[in-house]
Design goal:
The structure holds 2 protein chains of 2 kinds. By secondary structure, chain A is mainly α. Chain A has 3 helices and 2 strands; from the N terminus they run H-H-H-E-E. In chain A, 39% of the residues lie in helices and 4% in strands. Chain B starts with 12 loop residues before the first helix and ends with a helix. Chain B contains 11 helices and 14 strands. By secondary structure, chain B is an alpha/beta fold. Chain B is globular, with a radius of gyration of 21 Å. Chain B has an 8-stranded mixed β-sheet, with helices on both faces. The chains are: A mainly alpha, B alpha/beta.
Chain lengths: 90, 422
């Protein structure tokens, strides 16, 4: 077992009543499991988050781009168009 | 109508600083920079802005803080884009449109001209950078870091939870029946990440929040933005509230070691008019937010977020119990005027960043997906906060007026004493 993760926005209640909404070290998790606790293990979530981050890096302005935007009095932002679709840099 | 500016990526702490500094440069007549006095463990100066046309220190103010908890990244982006959107609309002398919710220029003008907003987008820049580093590295523990970077117990510990460090029932083992009655720990390395620190307000970040209320005594409302329950909650967070027995108070030592949110024989006192105001302001926030695209935010006392459901191995059914909080910003801010009557009453709330309705995907938890969920959530919060600000003007007495009345009452009492002594 590699460790338990639970990123549910609302506390996730196992049938033993544990609330696990944060990362637990592997040994602590194993200890709790030995006591009969159940966890929602969601490593796939972290893989998705990491993947998302990689995509996000591509969308993020570089330091120079950010400085240029701010110098021009622009805030790096998006907005939604009339049909509610996301628009990129304004 | 102006559309709000919205984020679609997360920035590191340096970029948050750059954007904060840019607001007074872009809108010099509306914004001024605040450098908070207590540097973080990493030596950073925490930045904020004061937004509003009035420069008088006696202007009624609302405090807005973000990124107290490191992993709740989008709260800083919300603060920045809220400020930018408000300035853009005011400068254009136009209204603001957030989804299906619109705010007229008159509503924008009221907030900008009749109030000052004190906005600190990132209270905890050291923690934010740790999380951002974790996102780059794919390091799960870093990505879920909650506290600051004070490692009392060593490098494998979790930092101090800045929302457990304020001087409000800080020493939970003394004030409560059982240490498990609250979601706070005195153990620096507890994986709960709710370590309270070595002493009340031991952390520079917590000192900065308290400093803001000391330095700007006309702050009368406070929104501390967190994630991720989809709620706006108000005091009390350590136990349930009642409005009839003022002896049941956090200041009454007779109840030390007896407080327990599961034992309703002790419930914390709150004047009934304050409870009504909290409910009204919370409802105004949730209503404006809901009009954007139908998101539903819970309005409740903070203790409601501590609801835990147990399924005991023996016996049928489930048992519900509650775990409170101590040392939290909202309770601390509101408690100050009970402890020191010269301090202003601050109607303090914690906003819990939500998620799109009906979407329970974990991706929309602490760090909502930047491509779509984050801008939608920020748009919701901009509307909720504007609705909240407007309602404070409509229904909360001006702090300046209250203090003037108090001064006049004191003067009248003094004159009466002088007359009678003559």
């Amino acid at each position: 077992m590699q460790g338990a993760f639970d990123m549910g926005a609302r506390p996730q209640h196992t049938k033993q009543g544990w609330v696990a909404e944060f990362y637990l070290p592997e040994e602590e998790c194993d200890e709790l499991v030995a006591e009969g606790c159940e966890f929602r293990i969601d490593r796939a979530y972290f893989d998705r988050l990491h993947e998302e981050h990689q995509k996000e890096q591509a969308r993020r302005p570089s330091k120079q781009e950010l400085e240029a935007l701010l110098k021009n009095g622009q805030f790096p932002s998006c907005s939604f168009d009339e049909k509610g679709r996301l628009k990129g840099f304004e | 109508m102006i559309r709000p500016s919205l984020p679609f990526f997360y920035s590191d702490a340096d970029d948050i600083d750059a954007m904060t500094r840019s607001l007074p440069e872009m809108f010099p007549n509306l914004c001024s920079l605040i450098e908070l006095p207590h540097r973080t463990r990493a030596g950073r100066t925490v930045l904020g802005i004061r937004l509003g046309t009035s420069r008088a220190l006696t202007t009624d103010m609302i405090l807005l803080t973000g990124n107290v908890h490191a992993r709740e990244l989008g709260t800083a982006e919300f603060c920045l884009h809220f400020a930018n959107s408000l300035c853009k609309a005011y400068t254009a002398r136009d209204g603001l449109i957030c989804g299906a919710k619109t705010f007229s220029f008159e509503q924008i003008r009221t907030v900008v001209e009749e109030l000052n907003l004190i906005i600190v987008p990132c209270v905890n820049p050291d923690g934010r950078d740790w999380v951002m580093q974790g996102r780059s590295e794919g390091d799960h523990a870093k990505m879920l870091w909650r506290g600051n970077r004070q490692l009392d117990g060593g490098p494998d510990c979790y930092g101090v939870d800045l929302n457990r460090n304020q001087d409000f029932l800080w020493d939970h083992t003394r004030y409560f029946h059982d240490a498990t009655s609250v979601d706070t720990t005195h153990l620096p390395c507890s994986s709960s990440q709710t370590y309270r620190g070595q002493s009340p307000a031991s952390e520079p970040e917590a000192q900065n929040v308290a400093w803001l209320m000391d330095h700007f005594p006309y702050i009368y409302a406070y929104l501390d933005v967190h994630g991720t329950y989809g709620a706006i909650v108000h005091p009390w967070g350590h136990t349930f509230t009642q409005t009839t027995d003022s002896t049941q108070s956090f200041q009454n030592a007779a109840f030390d070691s007896a407080r327990d949110p599961d034992d309703l024989s002790y419930r914390e006192y709150m004047p009934p008019e304050d409870l009504a105001t909290f409910q009204r302001l919370g409802a105004a926030f949730a209503s404006a937010l809901g009009e954007v695209r139908g998101s539903e935010y819970l309005v409740a006392p903070s203790i409601e977020l501590g609801r835990v459901v147990d399924f005991p191995p023996s016996g049928p059914g489930s048992v519900t119990h509650y775990r409170g909080t101590t040392g939290a910003n909202d309770d601390y801010a509101y408690s100050r005027h009970f402890v020191d009557s010269e301090k202003a009453k601050v109607l303090a709330f914690t906003v819990e960043f939500g998620r799109p309705p009906g979407n329970d995907d974990v991706i929309d938890g602490f760090q909502p997906e930047t491509a779509l969920a984050l801008p939608l959530i920020v748009q919701d919060l901009i509307a909720g906060t504007l609705g909240f600000c407007g309602e404070t003007r409509a229904s909360v007495p001006s702090q300046a007026r209250l203090l003037l009345w108090a001064a006049l009452a004191a003067l009248a009492a003094l004159i009466l004493v002088l007359i009678t002594s003559c």
